Amino acid sequence: MRNNIVFWFLFGLFLLGSSFAEAGMLIVQQSPSGEELTWACEGAKFRMGNKEVYTVMDADSQRIYTVMVKEREYTVSTAAEVRRQMEEMQKQLSRLKTLEKKFKGLGKLFGGKKEEKPQDSSSLGPKVTYKPTGDKKHIAGYKALKVLQLEDGHPVAELWVSEALAKDIAQACDYSKLEAMIKAMTPEGQQMAVYEKGRPRVGPFKGEGISGFPVKVVDMAQGKEILRLIKAEKKRLSSSYFKVPEGFKRLEVGKSGASPF
């Protein structure tokens, strides 16, 4: 569940603009199980999660806090530490690939199967595109456009996106600071930016004339809704909302299963 929360948080960030005002934004979404997921931002601070666990990203200090409510514990990582962890994971993956090649070579030497040619990068996965349908409706008070997500031309998901909500969120969030934080977290050679050449990145809809924040997502293969906006409020959020509660115990990242997210 923690990974799903982070995914939809970042997905939403990629669809937004750059200006911000002196007010916060609080969004409540619902999962298929009925669980409420909260997404909030104000200035350079961002928070997403549920009643059991939530993550706070402070773009001013470039720190990431993950709070486990029931356990009364939390972890904290800097953007630089996250980058080092990701770089170490890349190195380990590279070592595994090297070992795999050596074992394949030994298998060939002793009469094993002939080593297969590496797949072309274009065949490693389906081509994902997005198609607006023209259908519109109001969800939680926001006008939304229906967009189909296609894989190799076949529809796999139904997304309802709201441009109005995207604009409201953009006015509450300082994306210039968030962009700097994300760049500091990202290893060289990888791309995870909110901006491209000074302009807002439009995420998976880039180049297709579509923008907006997802207010409803339907998995067409399963025929069920997997995310829906319940409410969105413009409001001043207390500073404590973006802090670790007093009395919580700090865990070291990498111990007891703790991680930045």
Description:
By secondary structure, the chain is of the alpha+beta class. The chain is about 25% helix and about 35% strand. The chain has helices spanning about 1-15, 80-110, 165-170, 175-185, and strands at about 25-30, 35-40, 45-50, 55-60, 65-70, 75-80, 130-140, 140-150, 155-160, 195, 200, 215-220, 225-235, 250. Helix 2 (about 80-110) packs parallel to helix 4 (about 175-185). The chain starts with a helix and ends in an 11-residue tail after the last strand. About 30% of the residues are buried. It comes from Thermosulfuriphilus ammonigenes. Pfam families: DUF4412 (PF14371).
Topology:
Elements: H1 2-13, E1 24-30, E2 36-42, E3 45-49, E4 53-58, E5 63-68, E6 73-78, H2 79-109, E7 128-139, E8 142-151, E9 154-162, H3 163-172, H4 175-185, E10 195-196, E11 199-200, E12 213-219, E13 224-235, E14 249-250
Parallel strand pairs: 6-14
Antiparallel strand pairs: 1-2, 1-13, 2-3, 3-4, 4-5, 5-6, 7-8, 8-9, 9-12, 10-11, 12-13
Helix pairs in contact: 2-4
Organism: Thermosulfuriphilus ammonigenes
Protein name: DUF4412 domain-containing protein
Pfam families: DUF4412 (PF14371)
